[in-house]
Amino acid sequence: TLEWLIEQYRQSRIYGDLSRATRNQRDNIFLGVIKKSGVHPFVGINEASIQKGIEDRAATPFQAHHFSVAMRGLFRWAKQANHITVDPTAGISHPRRPRTGGFQEWTEDDVEAFERRWPLGTKERVWLHVLLFTGVRRGDAVRLGKQHIRKGILTIATEKTGTEISIPVLADLAATI
Asked: Of 175, 170, 174, 169, nearest to 156 (Cα)?
């Protein structure tokens, strides 16, 4: 079944070599795939099946793109592992992700309003100050805490690359943490 194939992939070295964030993202995608089609034989999945999965997510272009990438990873591995002879994702182009311009930058007024709403001692204030005063990715920010601070220096191995970074802890961040 497709569910079996996904489980085999999740136990593979190729899957294990992906960053934790990528594995988590793919796991979320695979949960939906298993729920909808997990009982079907994976050998019956063809290019049209993959294209249908992409089209089903057309209203959310980023989900469509990530679905395409996850399924390509799964079926490339399945072909290498001799579970299939033809990769149904080989002829599929990843859907384009729309250019969004990113997140709107906060102004000093935005930060001040947020701090008025969420005083010291709230988790919202901690979240804001960790993001403001470290510049780390969201995936790293959620892991930061007192355990990463020694003698006024914050040190953490980043989730995405594993690179160890050290950042001086500013007074505002120290007070918040």
From this structure: 169
